[in-house]
Design a protein that fits this description.
The chain is of the alpha+beta class. The protein has a single domain, classed as SH3 type barrels. The chain is 25% helix and 35% strand. It contains 2 helices and 5 strands, in the order H-E-E-E-E-E-H. The protein has helices at 3-16, 120-140, and strands at residues 29-38, 41-55, 62-69, 72-79, 85-92. A 5-stranded antiparallel β-sheet has the order 4-3-2-1-5, with no helix packed on it. A hairpin with a 6-residue loop joins strand 2 (41-55) and strand 3. The longest helix is centred in the last third of the chain and has 21 residues, at 120-140. The termini are far apart.
């Protein structure tokens, strides 16, 4: 490991302590909580959508999230280790065969749907999450 890689690893460790970012990939639905500063106030704003791309580049890693808001497609690129990104929550895992889902930009409605992953370790984790949420919902009633 050269000097630059060591410095980047130290910075990544410093920026991630206290944060619990889940493992996610393209096709997964995520909710990103972003710190927004308005004047002197600071608040948390949620942005929920499908992760269409992931760029793994050490300290410069980022991911792109796409959602449809009032009939318009909205995409935001978030730096993974930014102090402005408060947290990332994994909502559901998607079953896709591509690393970059840019083809979703040209699709609307049913053709833009992504199937939920139901096999393998990720599918088992998703099924366990669904069961846990159902149990919580039943307990509230």
């Amino acid at each position: 490991m050269n000097v630059i890689e060591k410095l980047e690893a130290d910075q990544v460790a410093k920026l991630t302590d206290g944060k619990n970012t889940p493992e996610f990939a393209a096709g997964d639905t995520v909710r990103v909580n972003v710190k927004v500063v308005e004047g002197t106030r600071e608040r948390i704003q949620a942005f929920e959508g499908v992760c269409i791309a992931r760029k793994n580049a050490g300290l410069n890693s980022s991911f792109t999230v796409r959602k449809i808001s009032y009939g318009e497609g909205v995409e935001r690129v978030f730096p993974l280790y930014s102090p402005r990104v408060d947290s990332v929550e994994l909502i559901r895992r998607g079953d896709v065969r591509r690393a970059k889902l840019y083809y979703l930009r040209g699709r609307r409605g049913k053709s833009a749907r992504i199937a939920e992953k139901t096999t393998g370790a990720a599918g088992k984790a998703a099924a366990a999450d669904r069961a846990e949420k159902a149990a919580e919902k039943a307990a509230k009633k």
